[in-house]
């Protein structure tokens, strides 16, 4: 019988998420993880099976975090344009950090070579697009947004813009440029 776990696995996933987000998957070594988490390699592998599994758990945590934000953001009483603008700013990391989106970074780094990363990424992207679609449709019903625009097409365009801007921020582009793009994108709706 092994010793009982001496650390909080949920907190470890959260901490690992930050490390993977800063460094990427390949540059985050098991040693860096154990140092950051304050645990031994045995605990890392006994609890999470592998670095890859911990990475996927971190991506899932990030995805749930983003979907929770979107649900809260789009349930506020603010005008839809302001909600869309805020969602785009937060999803890209505007004003907050220059790391981009963890899942965009993971998809760019590992692409279709990693089925688990692709699955988690695609689920988040579908969720973001659906949240945008619902907000656009609500804005169209309320007369705030142009009702002649196709909500599916516009939601896809917003998702693509978020993904692109996330990469621009990661490349350390000028944040005022990103804000101009967000504002122009939302305004045209």
Strand content: under 5%
- Structural class call reads mainly alpha
Ranges with pLDDT <50 over ≥5 residues? none
**What percent of residues adopt helix (DSSP H or I)?**
over 70%
Order of helices and strands: HHHHHHHHH
**In the CATH hierarchy, what is the class of one domain?**
Mainly Alpha
CATH superfamily of one domain: Tetracycline Repressor, domain 2
What would you say the CATH architecture of one domain is? Answer: Orthogonal Bundle
Instruction: Give the tally of β-strands.
Output: 0
Biggest beta sheet attributes: none
Count of alpha and pi helical runs = 9
Tell me, briefly, the overall form: elongated
In angstroms, what separates the terminal alpha carbons? 61 Å
- The averaged pLDDT comes out at 92
Q: Using the CA coordinates, give the radius of gyration.
A: 19 Å
CATH topology grouping of one domain: Tetracycline Repressor, domain 2
Task: Give the gist of this structure.
With 189 residues, this protein is mainly α. It contains 9 helices and no strands. It has a domain at 60-187: Tetracycline Repressor, domain 2, CATH 1.10.357.
